[in-house]
Amino acid sequence: MKILVTGGAGYIGSTICSALEDNGHTPIVMDSLVRGRVEFTKGRIFYKADVSDKSYLQRIINEHSDISCTIHCAALIVVPESVEKPYEYYTENVTKSLELFRNLKDLGQKRIVFSSSASIYDVVPDFMVRENSPLKPSSPYARTKYMMEMVLQDFCKAYDLRGIALRYFNPIGADPKLRSGAHDPSPSHVVGKMVDVTLGKISEFQITGVNWPTRDGSGVRDYIHVWDLAQAHIKAIENFDDAFAKASDSNSNYLVINLGTGKGVTVKELVSAFEKVQGKNLKRSETQPRPGDVAGAYANADTAKRLLGWEASMSVEQGISDALRWADHRKSILGYS
After folding, report:
1. How is 108-133 classified by DSSP, letter by letter?
2. Tens digit of pLDDT for each residue in 282-333?
3. Exposed site from 38, 45, 210, 312, fewest CB < 10 Å?
4. 141 is catalytic
5. Which has the closest alpha carbon to 125: 212, 187, 209?
6. Which CATH number goes with the domain that contains 59?
7. 47, 90, 141, 223: which is the annotated catalytic residue?
8. What letter would DSSP give residue 159?
9. Is residue 279 part of a domain?
């Protein structure tokens, strides 16, 4: 199948493209390169364009009329930055996604897989969230994802569309074949910061928040290997119609599915795993939470297994190992370590 991947030059989008190719599919990449890397599009069908540009989308569909589904990954994703720059986040993630969904509808593209986020969940007593758990997005970034889920749901109800919102938990690692990986020179996610300490780019890793109501006071997350995440998208496109047939509400054109390991790992436990993989201690300190931070959550991933036949298989240690291997390899692809 041909699959349109918006944001296909980014960290997650490019990994999805590699998984598509490995499974016999053809990704059609649409990316403005505002944050994506052109190096990740090498050898692929690539259109440099904004996702809200209807004329360019029309061109893509004219040239690839057999596109069977759109995976919409394009978005700004840094929580602290969203607090500082809400206008940019609402413009890029909401306004432009709204136009994309309308344009896909107008152009006859009826299947959408949307990259959503577990950051929209409220904190629950045991930290494990199901798809019907309470929602309380606590940052502009999270609110953009929440808004676009509502938009997609309304579109699917009103128009002849079907949409699957995949709520990502916390991606770590890199493509195991090292075709792509995290590329932000100043990463905000935890494993990226730990790697930067190892590379000597920053002096220490800061555990942001140690007074959360968790087993050790640090935040709890569900760290999922980005390759497992990519494989879930393969299952979503290959079992798209079957997923709706298996859903409890068979009349709905919209599904929400958690993508996580089903295991909660605290930040302190992640540090210990990193030290185990690396074989040496990591210099760290403890600080206050960042703007938009919450205690965290981990996934109940039963729905993904039931509807898509998918479950995570790679360990946190594998994610850390691949992140370190990618850091060693990154300069040969991107020109910086």
Report:
1. T--EEEEEEEGGGBPP-TTSEE-TTS
2. 999 999 998 778 889 999 999 999 999 999 999 999 999 999 999 999 989 9
3. 38
4. yes
5. 212
6. 3.40.50.720
7. 141
8. S
9. no
